Amino acid sequence: MIYFNCDYNEGAHEKIMEALMRTNMEQSIGYGMDSYSEEAKRLIRKLCGKDDVDVHFLVGGTQTNLIVITSALRPHQGVLAANTAHINVHETGAIEGCGHKVLTLPSEDGKITAEQVEQAFLEHKNEPTAEHMVQPKMVYISNPTELGTIYDRDELKKLHDVCKKYHLFLFMDGARLGYGLQAKENTLDLPCIAENCDVFYIGGTKVGALFGEAVVISNDYLKEDFRYIMKQKGGMLAKGRLLGIQFAELFRDGLYFEISAHADRLAELLRTAFREKGYTFLVENTTNQIFPILPIEHAEILEKKFLFENQGKVDESHIAVRFCTSWATKEENVDQLIDAIRQL
Amino acid sequence: MIYFNCDYNEGAHEKIMEALMRTNMEQSIGYGMDSYSEEAKRLIRKLCGKDDVDVHFLVGGTQTNLIVITSALRPHQGVLAANTAHINVHETGAIEGCGHKVLTLPSEDGKITAEQVEQAFLEHKNEPTAEHMVQPKMVYISNPTELGTIYDRDELKKLHDVCKKYHLFLFMDGARLGYGLQAKENTLDLPCIAENCDVFYIGGTKVGALFGEAVVISNDYLKEDFRYIMKQKGGMLAKGRLLGIQFAELFRDGLYFEISAHADRLAELLRTAFREKGYTFLVENTTNQIFPILPIEHAEILEKKFLFENQGKVDESHIAVRFCTSWATKEENVDQLIDAIRQL
Amino acid sequence: MIYFNCDYNEGAHEKIMEALMRTNMEQSIGYGMDSYSEEAKRLIRKLCGKDDVDVHFLVGGTQTNLIVITSALRPHQGVLAANTAHINVHETGAIEGCGHKVLTLPSEDGKITAEQVEQAFLEHKNEPTAEHMVQPKMVYISNPTELGTIYDRDELKKLHDVCKKYHLFLFMDGARLGYGLQAKENTLDLPCIAENCDVFYIGGTKVGALFGEAVVISNDYLKEDFRYIMKQKGGMLAKGRLLGIQFAELFRDGLYFEISAHADRLAELLRTAFREKGYTFLVENTTNQIFPILPIEHAEILEKKFLFENQGKVDESHIAVRFCTSWATKEENVDQLIDAIRQL
Amino acid sequence: MIYFNCDYNEGAHEKIMEALMRTNMEQSIGYGMDSYSEEAKRLIRKLCGKDDVDVHFLVGGTQTNLIVITSALRPHQGVLAANTAHINVHETGAIEGCGHKVLTLPSEDGKITAEQVEQAFLEHKNEPTAEHMVQPKMVYISNPTELGTIYDRDELKKLHDVCKKYHLFLFMDGARLGYGLQAKENTLDLPCIAENCDVFYIGGTKVGALFGEAVVISNDYLKEDFRYIMKQKGGMLAKGRLLGIQFAELFRDGLYFEISAHADRLAELLRTAFREKGYTFLVENTTNQIFPILPIEHAEILEKKFLFENQGKVDESHIAVRFCTSWATKEENVDQLIDAIRQL
Questions:
Q1: Class of the A14-253 domain?
Q2: Residue A99 contacts C where some CB pair is shorter than 8 Å
Q3: In chain A, what are the domain boundaries?
Q4: What digits encode the pLDDT tens for the residues D314-333?
Q5: Spatial separation of the C-alpha atoms in residues A198 and A193, rounded to whole Å
Q6: What ipTM describes this predicted complex?
Q7: What is the DSSP letter of B134?
Q8: A126 band by pLDDT with thresholds 50, 70 and 90
Q9: Does a cis peptide bond (omega within 30 degrees of 0) precede residue D128?
Q10: Is D128's pLDDT higher than 80?
Q11: Residues 6+ apart with CB under 8 A from B195
Q12: Would you call C101 and D93 a contact, using CB atoms and an 8 Å cutoff?
């Protein structure tokens, strides 16, 4: 069985494994105060083009989402997000578990617009009943989204502007950020994201690391005491250097971008193969996730040899599915899948 | 200005005020352990036809909802409710503030069905991703709903059955229960509700009391330590007898039902007046809330003399509004409003 | 049986009951936006000598403590309090239930000192382990304390200064504030409290009202969105005017102070009777609670006719007990108790 | 500088690093459902001598404590623990952050007794005020404790019995469990712990792993839906096999016990050196932490070359300090430290 079901099937990029081996018996201070973590922070600050952002390393995505969001909100405040958002659907109520409502906006492609944010904010500010409703205070987007789509520079700028106008924090979940930044149609880069978002994170778990997410905080208000909340929520790794070492490898010489491009290129090959076969897609995108709509019997043929995800029936005879490539995907496995597609 | 905007504009029924005056300087034990509270509990148990239900008195609706729900759920569990539900829209995230997600079901008339509950439950139980989603464990309904509609005996029974089948708690918010039980088309009664719901409450705040909601718990699991959670959430009234005295007055001789019928009867007069004028309604119902759809200019005429609630535009020239009657509504005020309707 | 066990055995002062009766069938807007609540706020602002304090009315003490504290703190922050503090011992973990640790300071008489606060703050600020500990951000005191003692002007000023120095909020629980302000040795007044505390409340439940606590907020940071949190925690009374009417009665003509003085005067009579009998006290104080240490057999004689509280054995043959007077205590009952004491 | 400040300065045991390298590019299912995790669970179940315990892997200690505790308690319940307990002092209020009070018991050596538990339980069960207090429902112990002491078989059995008597859960934090089990005076083993505790964990972070704690649940009630809460609290590692691989290495051939014994043996050498020099200890123990009391000037000499922890002054001229050995401690470093001690 060849796995295309997600982008975290393997361990870590070999350079990361080598770095972990090389440093293994060194002694260092705990909790992310070590020199490797310092180096990784420096590298990320530089790539963001901002000396004054704070950088913190956490282990996983749900943990990062809940820590960032709960550190930002007062008890009566909530976070606006697409109804498809990971925090709304697939984190077992982690945000509500910290006391905050996820206020959902309808979305077909995983993205939300500045107009939706404005409208939702104004509906919740409608005096005098406003205080009987949760107060929107943060906007959560992911880039790429759950559906592999990405925001362009203009869309992000508009979200930034509406957030600024209404004093909302803009938070980008970048669990797959590399795959977004290297996508064919991408117009974003780290400086642009750091400029427009109050806080975002650069995902490592799905992009070459064993585990790890690098949180970048631009907004001064959100910087204060962030480590306290990391600790309280169980997110401060004792051997914090494990995160520093990994992110230093990823960002010292562009490894992160290189392996992300690899995944996007292979995804495009698969996408082309599906398209040439005449299949349509649940959503059009250019990142490492591909969402073809297949006749059910074709899906059943493919699943004998390949692992992929079911996204649900679209009609009686068709099903939408998800294939993922990643930093670790082997070209030969992609070739095998393409052959199989052509033979359908 | 005559108020039809809600059902809690006045104080309490005169018999309640008299009872409070009469007992004012008596000395009694606090926290609801007094003899008046005992009497009120006895009366309610008898009306429910069940000796073994637990009865507790709380001050208000949001407080009651959050205490009942948080007492029932483990951290990863949530409550299914209509998207229009009070707990979803108008309690400033009180349920999320206790750590629990409100899992919403679409509803046009404020009600949800057993089929919806079953479908939502099964979607959330879909292994192996189930544990990445909030686990539904309670079903919240209100009767009457936010839109003044009521459940019939068969609908309630079906909800009960589906809850039993999947080990869900069924919770009925009865903030306006009296107005539901006395409605023309009602088929429910207290024994039937106590039989079918694991927990429900009988609203006093909107039905003749100064304040107060009587929680009735049938399910043994939900009975345990309920008073601890009342105390922790600030819901245990020091002079608990104030609640006992009020509910004893309401239920000693049927006052609760009598004053509820009064409100429903006046609502029906208003409903008829609107209907005779040719207006349609946002929702058809027979309880104390009336939701006519008015030409905007007619609404503007009425609001010069009467206070009522805006439910939102239905098209360019029409608006849905809400008028409420209550135990306290004076017949002469209803007459004035009917006159005004006829002159539109 | 004559009750001296607490200060909330009766209903409300007759002037309050009359006001509630007089206004009962008036129609008014809900949630504390009515004119009676406005009047009560004006009166309290005036008595505090500060136009810019915010005033809110809540139903009970636990509710008030949890709402004030959770509105002030971020998730990693805690509240310093005496180990005897009500929030630490007798609120079923209401503060922890909102996510915050109560950081306790040892206290013999219910009071804490500026020195203790400074020391605790510095211990928790000890870098770099500070972020592994809860961050103290608020100081909770009660006046009178659980042991009936009071702070003097100098002590309060010093607490204010240390809080200011370390950016801590100072919060005074004034559930029995009237009995403190009218105590023989008291040096505080409302302007002094409003000046030195970021937030405090004036208790009504134990001082003449049916129920109700008036929160006074001086600190601008704490004012923001306070009503949202009131609503979320179930503390926003639908018929908010009930609170406004009561506090207006208490403060329009000095009723609050007059009835407090009554209780303190009667307490002093009891205290003198115990002292003349040769008893010592668990704690020396001049407010409405009296804590004599009695031979166990004397306590057993008194409890045949009088209800009072057991504070625990002090040695094999002696027990500390608590008697409370209140606004409602009848002089004749005090006389009977004094007779009984003399006959021991 | 040679580090003796804690037991998590290095990476992981070389066998673990090799296993991670060897399996790195394998594809496997996420979230701990992989075959390595299954193997590790099997090994642990076998060592515990119980087929029916549930085993789960988490990343770190604070995370594990908060997940175990919050999964066990209802909102009004708290956990009894020594005042020195990690959850009380060094986890930034993680337990309170989940809504639960840590009810502290005084302790000199980090341990608590069955008698203390019984007394505390009974004090909190004192009707009718019980419901105004947090309800004790779990007992948290650590073995070894924060002060390196250990429970013996009889003490554990008595704790078990008192917990059973009062329906309390007994939870052992075993962050350093290996160092306890291999200590000279130890009488416990895994079957005995699994038998007496409702839930405990075997620490990997401090005992040879890069990170990881293995939770073992004996009590059926605590087993239900544990993974939901792991996910909600951000504790479910995407690449769960990383934990499985590590614990399989640790337990396949006794590595865990072997490396623990190494640390304890080196600690004993240091302890002897301090003792021969005439120093006393803050606490007597036989695990990997040593707490000598040094003249301040001696401590200052040692800290030029060695990193260790300050435990606070014991008198004007003496300070208690902590040295830790671990699985990774080199014999030559211990020799250097012993030399330095002898030269003081």
A1: alpha beta
A2: yes
A3: 2-7+256-342, 14-253
A4: 999 999 999 999 999 999 99
A5: 9
A6: 0.97
A7: P
A8: confident
A9: yes
A10: no
A11: B50, B160, B218
A12: yes
